[in-house]
Amino acid sequence: MEPAEGLNSVALSRRQISNPLGVLVLVALAAIWEVLVRFSIADVQFLPAPTEIAKAAQAEIFGGELTGRLIHTVGVTALGWVSASVIGVALGLLLGMSQTVYRYSMTSFEVTRAIPPITFAPAALLIFGFSLKMELVLVIYGGIWPALINTIGGVRAIAPELRDVGTMLRLSPVDTVRKIVFPAALPAILIGLRLGLSLCLVLAVVAEMVGNPAGLGNGLIRARQALQPALMFVYVIAAGLLGVALNAGLRLAARTLVPGNSLTELSAS
Amino acid sequence: MKRIRLDSLPGLLPLLLLLSLWELTGDPESPFFPAPSSWSQALFTRGQGDKIVPAVIDTVRTFAFGLLGATILGVVLGLSVGVSRTFGRAFGPTFEFARALPPAAIVPVATLLLGFDETMKVVVVVLAALWPILLNTSSGVQELNPILLDTVRSLRLSRTRTLLGVLLPSVMPAIVLGVRVATPIALVITLLVEYLTAVNGVGALVGEAQRTFQPARVYALIVITGLLSLVVNAGVRHLENAVQRRRVGDAWM
Amino acid sequence: MGRSGVGKTTLLRVLAGLHPPMADLPNGDSVVRFGGQPVVGPPEGVSLVFQDYTSSLLPWRSVARNVELPLEGRLPKADCRIRVAEALELVGLADRSDAQPFELSGGMQQRVQLARALASRPDVLLMDEPFGALDALTKADLEDQLLEIFAATGTTVVFVTHDIEEAVYLSDRVLVLDGTPAQIVAEIPIESPRPRSQMHTRESPEFLRARHRVHEVIFGTR
């Protein structure tokens, strides 16, 4: 069983607080885009210019529904992620620590895990209809997996000597988890939580696009139906920025609550 | 291929129990939880059975082209970022920005700009799956053993030779790792695009079954996507092993 | 003492209560007894020091907090602090109590583990090749430190090693393990007087005699 491998989330630009060249390039590309659309050089129907997007953003934030929708998506993502993490970590600790439980259940988890959570969206829709429940169920279901798998991996990777120390000191099971297993597995658990947060956001947006008429996803669909491309871009960018903000927030929280560079400072952001 | 180990079989117990319980308490007519035995039949009701294989082919086609495009683009950009510090710094924020956009949210934009066709599907898949490949490739370049680079310089190899004969093969394991990470992403996004746009493929079938209130069919198709996912992932791992074996011989296994 | 792989570590783990013995005595009695009671799990009064100190110290706790681990919840806070200070004093790390394990050298980390084992004032200290991962000079230092601790606390020490010189230098009795399955093939009393010293003891006739004897047992009369 493999915990998260490979790079899927490393800062592309090396850790630099200011990157004037990069920002310049970004602005230049936006300017080129603007020119191409303004002067109809690019013959793509419905492509809005960056200035139009900015205008639509301003209108939507101050006069429209962006804030409300944003709060909805954030709320569902956060609630779903917290619930999923608690369930996933608890279950993960159990499966990681007890060889018996692991032996008699791990394969089931691996098989079910092969089915991507997003493919359960149609089933969730059938069962729960167009509701908040549908969105929440999908988010929680999806968010459990990274927490579960990474917790199991982290617990099972604990050096046997460390486990023996707990045995030698005759620690109670609760104390063993609290003082040895959980802190030792914490770096892996945090990775799982971080992956879970990204996944929860994606599932929330998808659920809002197809099931629950609320939030950023729904705003995007509405804009699409009204053939308002600039507004669509606003919602896409809003979703992207939300993802970045949530990830940064989590990293900050992890660094404050769990200090110690040997634990949380991984080169992956 | 992953050999099915006998000692992993007991782990199926909870799943089998769940399915049996479902079977006993489920009602084939239930709008929510039809019994598992009714699933396979549901695939063929109303003469829809012949749509399945073409749909699988459509999904696999989009997935394959999407992954291929993602690999080419990811490797080219990844090599550029890895080799040239300036390039990396210049385009870093742009890439970060593009990477942050959720693929699901890109779909409506893509249908608006590109229409409802195969090209649109592949473009979305490429945009979603290229990032792990890019990142792994660039980090593979950055982690190249400096001694190797010194060797190349002391042999005074030409630019092309260096690139094709030394650089690319050395970075190959990193690239393959990136492709492995990108594979499930590519498949999921393919299915997602199909579900959201109903262009073609298994995802479209699932959407259709859901909209026409055929829960047993939905579950059956979900199982098919699970199988598809297993096959695809096993295939990529096979590829990864093949590449590794060429480098290190059978000792690696 | 015995060769690598003969089963010394396994024996120690059985003594520590980490492994059950394979069988009981023919009359049903337990093979392993501590203080008259059969050993069915780690017994109260027995501490174990592992060879791999990196893996057995808690990297997220400071030195003092690591040493405190066996005492938490079992002694009032104030007593814990006193015991920790005593233990760190015994191993000579009183000034590093707030350091993190990764900041310390290998020898120091092993001393922290030793302090942790001593904090609970055990009757018996089991040590599994504790100095095996250290360089020769650090090893010599720690051997002497162990002898001082032994003199100061009077704790019984069961020390496992594959190093003949170390076994003879440190102990009062050397039990040689050999064969498949492993048996105690010899018990050699060590007559070197205490206190011992790296230079003088190792040149003394008693030491050389005992060393010769152990060599004979292990290698035959080569």
Q: Which ranges of chain A are low-confidence, i.e. pLDDT below 50, for 5 or more consecutive residues? A: 261-269
Distance between the termini of chain A: 23 Å
Count of individual domains of chain A: 1
Q: On the 0-100 scale, what is the average pLDDT of chain B? A: 85
Poorly predicted ranges of chain B? none
Q: Could you name the CATH class of chain A?
A: Mainly Alpha
Q: What order do the SSEs of chain B take from the amino end to the carboxyl end, as H and E? A: HHHHHHHHHH
**Overall pLDDT metric of chain A:** 85
SSE string of chain A, helices as H and strands as E: HHHHHHHHHHH
Structural class of chain B: mainly alpha
Described by the principal axes of the CA atoms, the overall outline of chain B is elongated
CATH architecture of chain A: Orthogonal Bundle
**What kind of sheet is the major sheet of chain A?**
none
Biggest β-sheet of chain B, characterized? none
Summarize the structure in short:
Chain B is built from ten helices and no strands. With 253 residues, chain B is mainly α. Chain B starts with 12 loop residues before the first helix and ends in a 5-residue tail after the last helix.
Which tags fit this structure?
heterotrimer; A: 269 residues; mainly alpha; MetI-like fold; elongated; B: 253 residues; 10 helices
Write the layout of secondary structure elements.
The complex is a heterotrimer of chains A (269), B (253) and C (222).
Chain A: H1 20-38, H2 50-62, H3 66-97, H4 99-103, H5 106-113, H6 121-128, H7 132-156, H8 160-168, H9 173-210, H10 215-225, H11 229-257
Chain B: H1 13-25, H2 37-42, H3 52-83, H4 85-100, H5 103-114, H6 118-142, H7 146-154, H8 159-197, H9 201-211, H10 215-248
Chain C: H1 8-15, E1 33-34, E2 37-38, E3 46-49, H2 53-56, H3 63-68, H4 77-91, H5 106-119, E4 124-128, H6 136-153, E5 156-160, H7 164-170, E6 173-178, E7 183-189, H8 198-201, H9 205-219
What do these coordinates show?
The complex is a heterotrimer of chains A (269), B (253) and C (222). Helix content of chain A is 73%, strand content 0%. Chain A has 269 residues and is mainly alpha-helical. In chain A, helix 3 runs antiparallel to helix 9. Chain A is elongated. In chain B, helix 3 packs antiparallel against helix 4 and helix 3 runs antiparallel to helix 8. The radius of gyration of chain B is 22 Å and the shape is elongated. The mean pLDDT of chain B is 85. In chain C, strand 6 (173-178) and strand 7 (183-189) form a beta hairpin. Chain C has a domain at 39-159: Rossmann fold (3-Layer(aba) Sandwich), CATH 3.40.50. Chain C is built from nine helices and seven strands; from the N terminus they run H-E-E-E-H-H-H-H-E-H-E-H-E-E-H-H. At the A-B interface, helix 1, helix 5, helix 6, helix 9 and helix 10 of A face helix 1, helix 4, helix 5, helix 6 and helix 8 of B.
